[in-house]
What we know:
The complex is a heterodimer.
Chain A: E1 13-28, E2 33-49, E3 53-57, H1 64-71, E4 79-85, E5 91-93, H2 99-106, E6 109-112, H3 126-136, H4 142-155, H5 172-184, E7 190-194, H6 202-219, E8 222-227, H7 230-236, E9 239-244, E10 247-253, H8 254-259, H9 264-272, H10 312-316, E11 322-325, E12 328-330
Parallel strand pairs in A: 3-8, 3-9, 6-7, 7-8
Antiparallel strand pairs in A: 1-2, 1-4, 4-5, 9-10, 10-12, 11-12
Helix pairs in contact in A: 3-4, 3-5, 4-5, 5-6
Chain B: E1 9-20, E2 23-35, E3 40-44, H1 51-58, E4 66-77, E5 86-89, H2 98-106, E6 108-111, H3 115-118, H4 125-136, H5 141-154, H6 160-164, H7 173-185, E7 191-195, H8 203-220, E8 223-228, H9 231-237, E9 240-245, E10 248-254, H10 255-260, H11 265-273, E11 324-325, E12 331-332, H12 347-354
Parallel strand pairs in B: 3-8, 3-9, 6-7, 7-8
Antiparallel strand pairs in B: 1-2, 1-4, 4-5, 9-10, 10-12, 11-12
Helix pairs in contact in B: 4-5, 4-7, 5-7, 7-8
Amino acid sequence: MTTPTAQGSNDKRLLEVKNLRKYYPIKKGFLRKTVGYVRAADDVNFFINEGETLGLVGESGCGKTTVSRCILRAQAPTSGEMLFRTGDGATVDLSRLDRKALSPLRSQMQMIFQDPYGSLNPRMTIFDMVSEPLLISGMKDRRKREERVAELLRLVGLRPEFMQRFPHAFSGGQRQRIGIARALALNPRLVVADEPVSALDVSVQAQTLNLLLDLQKRLNLTYLFVSHNLSVVKHICDRVTVMYVGKIVETATAEEMFARPRHPYTAALVAALPVADPRIKTGNVELPGEVASPANPPSGCYFHPRCAFCIDRCRTEAPAYREITPGHFAACHRAEELNLAGMA
Amino acid sequence: MNQPSDPLLSIRDLKVHFFMDEGVVRAVDGVSLDVYPGQVFGIVGESGCGKSVTMKALLRIVEPPGRIVSGEMLLRRTNKKGAAPDIVDLAKLDARGQEMRDIRGGQIALIPQEPMAAFSPVHTVGNQIMEAIQLHRNVDKKEARAIALQQLKDVGIPEAEQRLDAYSWQLSGGLRQRAMIAMALSCNPALLIADEPTTAVDVTTQAQVLRLLRRLQEERNSAIIFITHDLGVIAQVAHYVTVMYLGVVVEQGPVDDIFHNPKHPYTQALLKSIPSIDMTARADLPTIKGSIPHPFNRPAGCPFYPRCARFMQGKCDKEIPALLAVDDRQRVSCFLYHDQPAEAAPVTASVEAAL
């Protein structure tokens, strides 16, 4: 599949996130005075083209979940714009809409959750869960809802007869299919998938990934694929965005990101990935120390205390996030000059 | 790798069953394996394959209604002051007895999966490590503290002196896992069991922890049983690999053979189903049909037959294939290889001869 890159005209963009910030206040003392902020998302910029899969990658605490929750408006961002092109072609800024204005847009953005055990209510039948969004959106006729649920279950590879059962009767892989059916009930255009396969057994991960790819082709879905598993990201995503301590450090096509990373952090992530081949030794990556705290980030480039390529400028000046080569963005002072190793 | 003649641990036909009200769950159903000194022995398998229960049985910490039904777990125990090593069957020891308590932590130590849950939040990390040291070594509190401090330094914890008096919740995930490793190593165990030690940590921390384990293992020449579901991790750390499925061993062999010449249809399918570097992006991944059966619905015959691409009607669904050697390196429990007469001697016989 050929991938539209950054030059892709703006009308291909389904979502454009500009300068998104989400700060959580840290409150202390009897008066709950704000003493600081956790900068969970700090000046985040990216876009997603219609029909593509954008991978959002980073370690725990880097802000990838915060960004996806802001896009779905499960949380209100502190500042920034999130331009979403609605089904009728208009562009709206999701960050400015209130509850009422958001409600017709909710059906166009849905989420697939990480944990197929925690995300299904054990007291509701499959029909109740998958049809709840239909009911809320005004489909009052039960027979119509049953037809739609049957259609959805077939779509995700489950037998429609299963709809009166409860979640406990299903395996992890089947539960994740139910979660996917529920997310697709209202024909969304953007699907945020937060680690959709990481809780599944290895032998059922492949089935679920194939299903996601197949559904994307059939329904022209756009995915924001949040994951820490780089081999899965490389397989499923068109483009990849890497976050570190609330900031985006690099964005490129998946192919280029793995072949020629421009940010030392991305290169470290790629090198740390354990490859399932004993003849290829990986993991020989020198990344000292720990991930910085977003409440108290280091000066200059947030990555500099751990970076093997750090120069004086990195300690004082935050690097600009800029286009290094067409479609390849990075936030590193030395992105142009460094020749970082990718994957063989 | 060259294996010295005497295994450190030999598990023979171990069966651990859970006697529930609803029926019997055969969590471990005839597992045999040998671990040699200086070896990283990888056990890989998906949920319910019995890899963790096997290790609990080894430490004799299987909770009721689980019980070791049969089998042997022979540990070659090194005694103090140059006495000849003796062989003890862990399955026959009293789980609460002094002998087992000495082995647990002293000879065999465990690195659990969740370091957050494994440390007590109300005692300092140092006190917990010192308690383990004082239980197994004849030292006073001051010496124990010095040993604990050295252990923390050995696993690469910066500012070890301050960390010794810290509580586990004050440490980051990576440091906590390192402290856990320090505690497990504090009594110089001959065998270290690492149960998914990197599942709960990030990719870069995982690389650090794996490198640390490899370095410590080489320095001390101890044996590590490394349990994981991550085929990438197993390829990177293990010398020898055992693949388990639903309580049985389906394949055993050196890591290179398992990854480059897998014999059992399950191993073959599992390796194909993970996205690899040289795979065309977005192409359909080869899958294994169906899912892991519920423990109460265990198939008769070979446990993998309902999902197997090379299922033979009337054979695989009737009989249970034994784990047999297919050549001088690999052992497979699959009827596809049973008709080959070449050296197809049962594993148990060949190993008993070696003992």
